[in-house]
Each structure stands twice: as C-alpha cells, then as structure tokens.
Amino acid sequence: MREKILKKAHLNESSELAREYFNNLGIKFKEIKLSQYHRLKEFIDSEILPLLADKSYSMISKLRMKDRIIKDKYGVYLTTSGSYFSKREAISFYNPENNDKTILLGFCGWASGCNRLPYIRGFIKWCDWMKKDVQDQKEVKK
Length: 142
What we know:
Layout (H helix, E strand, L loop, with lengths): L1 H6 L5 H13 L8 H20 L10 E9 L2 E7 L6 E7 L9 E4 L9 H25 L1
Antiparallel strand pairs: 1-2, 2-3, 3-4
Helix pairs in contact: 2-4, 3-4
C-alpha cells in the first residue's frame, strides 16, 4: 500500500490512501506526543528541501513548514508558509468528538497536483517511523 500511495501522491486520492495507511497502524490519536508531531514536520521538510534546490520545481521558492504546531481541544494542526502565503494547512489531525475513533486527517487542502507530494511523502515516512517508534516503546515496557 505504501508504494501505491507514493505513486499517486500527486492525485487527490492519495489523501484517502494516506488516511487508510495511518488508520492501519492502530496508533491512538491521544497517544501521539508533541515531539512526534515535530518529527512529522521534519519529515515533510526533508521532502521539501530537495524540491527547492531543484529550480524546475516552480511552486513556491520559500516553502517551509512552520515551527509552531497548533494544538487545541479539537486537534493538532501543522502549518506551512511560502513566499506569498503563511500558515496554510499542511496536515491536520481533527478530532471533533475528542476521542480516538473520530480522527479526520486533512492534507494541504490548498494544494493540488505535484504541490501535495512533499506532504504526502513526508507523512508516509512519518507513519513508518511512528510504527517503529511505538514498537520500540512497547519493547522497553516489557
């Protein structure tokens, strides 16, 4: 499934595939630590930086993830900024019912096509890292 998502990352359907990928991990929303959200930001930035070095990528020359992660009673929101905009949605973990069952994941709703690529790819890498991190934590507790 991972390869299917990365292959279709520039398509809108990749958001739904990425949501399914996350849900299959079985990670509880309330157990995700702030430091793990910061790691997600780092994974996305690591996907953005090579694109900025490639001058043929015409999206936004100063695209970056914002350091601040917004957290409120309804969810956690990672934002991104560029040369002509600031604090747009990168990835949102929206939890309107404040439980682990109703998590709505949003992926850069402002972007389309290739502009989605670094966000989807970074998210999938983060999911892989989270799976390993959660497994490592379980091993430590034994």
